[in-house]
Amino acid sequence: MPEHLKAEDKPTRQFIGGFIWRRFWSQGYPWVDHQLALSWTLEQKLSLLLKIPAEKDTWTRAGAVLGKRESEYWRQARINPWGFEIDEAREAAEKLTAYEQPAAAIDCLYILADKKAPIPINLASSVLLAAAKSEEQQRRIDQHHIKEVIKWLQDQEPPESQELFLIEWQFLPLLNRLHGAEPKVLERRLASSPTFFCEVIAAVFRSEKDEEAQKREPTELETRIAQNAYSLLHGWRILPGATADGGFDGTKFTSWLNEVKALCKESGHLRIALDQLGQALAYAPEDSSGLWIHRAVAAALDSRDVAEMRRAFAVGHFNRRGVHGFSEGAEEKKIADGYRQKAQALLDNGFHRLADTVRGLAQEYEGDASAPRSALKALGVSKTPSLMRVLVDTALVTSMALGHKGRMWLHAAPEGGDLLFDFYKNRCKLQHVQKGTRIPKMPRPFMGVPSDGRHFFTTPRLARELINELQENRKD
Fold it and tell me: Which of 99, 331, 407, 412 has its CB surrounded by the most CB atoms within 10 Å?
């Protein structure tokens, strides 16, 4: 048998592999030990060990038999950690990382996270950062496992953890609330460090003072950094002044803002910094007095010199609405009434400029409430489809035009709540994907990720039915 272990022809390899597998399961490690005690070469013994299950009893024998060549076992072993005990998963992760198999090591860390077992941060940092540096390893990574490991580390590590800071930055595209994760350490650093906030702003936006930088094209590295930085700013929800117990410290917020103003004015990023902060402040908490927005935040937004921040604050509130249906203006009227009440509350508390901004929100929604019906009548449309229905129709028609016969995948974002989920499932009758089902080949970040139970798809037949529903609304 030894001379056939490294056979080049596939039938012989398969025969030998099947023979070894059957003997192992019928006779166990005593049979393996007997073979290893024979006068085989190290290459033959390595080949035998690689053909039996990669578990602790196997890799212990690999270390004893192969000696200095143990690394060859770990570089080639195919580890399946399901069923590993905590100590076994941790040991396998350490060995796999040491011998350049970080993708497999991540699977072992996932077992630890799933069992709620401690993961040494130095081990996690070595594994995750090594995986990020290798394109070959990245192709083998299960993104769901990475996300769950990071979420578990966030529960374990202190908020100021520098190792977890670097890990979150490296895997930031995976850490978005759309997929049940968030970059908590990075967001807390934004909220606590004016210097870091200004560095992130400078990574995305060019300085108004640097004319040469505005002419120069960014490098590939600068582009990747800018993409990460923008993603972080766009999803930022942990605001300056937020406390660990869920409260809000207005004094800390004001101090943070004053330092940011000084730093960004010096660097030439003040206006864009105020714009980005204003959008984030749309998520500011209410005040303990009952005012709908914290007084410290309201005072900052009411300042004479922050017109950009007030405009961005209004944009943030528009964006907060998220996905919505068409109600012929009824919902918009209700929202407008709410903003008028909020504007009056601000006026009553002396925040006149901010009250004007919020009143402008009310006026925008009032305009939206009156426009749709008259516009549609002018086009000769008697039966009004919802905006969401029109968007689905547009996607289906596009799929048809691209030759996909109306096939498409949709994800009901959690921000859309039950409204969006029910619309896809009950109104459009889209095919629902059960939670936990593996998503087939799709662009990142969905590829290889188990469905969260909010995915849907269409078939050619369903697509034709949905397109025909709106046929009378189409104009030549």
Answer: 412
Calculate the dihedral angle through the C-alpha atoms of 229, 231, 235, 237, rounding to the nearest 10 degrees.
-10
Give the tens place of pLDDT for each residue, 13-34.
788 888 888 998 999 999 999 9
Q: 434: Cβ–Cβ under 8 A, 6 or more apart, which residues?
A: 451, 453
**Token pair belonging to 5:** 């272990």
What's the Rg (C-alpha) of the chain? 29
User: 408 - beta bridge partners?
Assistant: 458
Is 391 among the domain residues? yes
Residue with tokens 């901004």: 357
Instruction: Return the residue matching tokens 């399946």.
Output: 80
The total domain count for the chain is: 2
Contacts of 232 (CB under 8 A, 6+ apart): 172, 183, 186, 187, 190, 200
Q: Which of 54, 19, 52 is nearest to 36 (CA)?
A: 52
Domain boundary among the residues 76, 91, 122 is at 76
251-284 residue pLDDT tens: 999 999 999 999 999 999 999 999 999 999 999 9
Q: Is residue 222 part of a domain?
A: no
- List the structure tokens of 383: 């039966």
Q: What H or E segment, with its residue span, contains residue 433?
A: strand 431-433
Q: Is residue 42 part of a domain?
A: yes
What range defines the domain where residue 59 resides? 2-76
* pTM of the entire predicted model: 0.73
Residue that terminates a domain, selected from 38, 54, 76: 76
Round to whole Å and give the CA distance between 66 and 334.
74
